[in-house]
Amino acid sequence: MSRSLSKGPYVDGKLLKKVGGKKPDDAGVIKTWARRSMIPPEFVGFKFGVYNGRQHIEVLVTEDMVGHRLGEFSPTKKFLRHGGKIQKELEQKQKEAEIAAAQAAKTASDAAKK
Predict the structure, then answer these.
(1) What is the C-alpha to C-alpha distance for residues 79 and 97, in angstroms, rounded to an integer?
(2) Is 56:71 a contact under the CB 8 Å cutoff?
(3) How many CA atoms lie within 13 A of 93 on its CB side?
(4) CA 38 – CA 98 distance, rounded (Å)
(5) pLDDT for 41
(6) How are beta strands 47-51 and 56-60 bridged, if at all?
(7) What share of the chain is helix, strand, coil (3-state, %, to 5)?
(8) Stated pTM of the model
(9) Strand partners, 56
(10) pLDDT in tens, 5-62
């Protein structure tokens, strides 16, 4: 649910202090754990290191991100892939095609040298 309009957007006070009075070029990467903090227009141009539970992921704030939360741009789960047997078969065929292409390129270069 969205936050009440009478309360206004939530922005972490520590982040505002870190950004206040600085230019985006001089600040460098600002590390933060405040994933729930909204992105106000003052953050545009700054780089934030948003913690995802394991590491800080660098996020460059643009105008399109204003109104969203910092945590939206630092995923906490790593997507591996979907699939089962069919997916494995497709990957195996792709590897075989890459190997065949590499061998063909090698033979073509050897023939050109002779």
Answers:
(1) 25
(2) no
(3) 6
(4) 45
(5) 93
(6) antiparallel
(7) 45, 15, 40
(8) 0.67
(9) 51
(10) 788 889 999 999 999 889 988 889 999 999 999 999 999 999 999 999 999 999 999 9
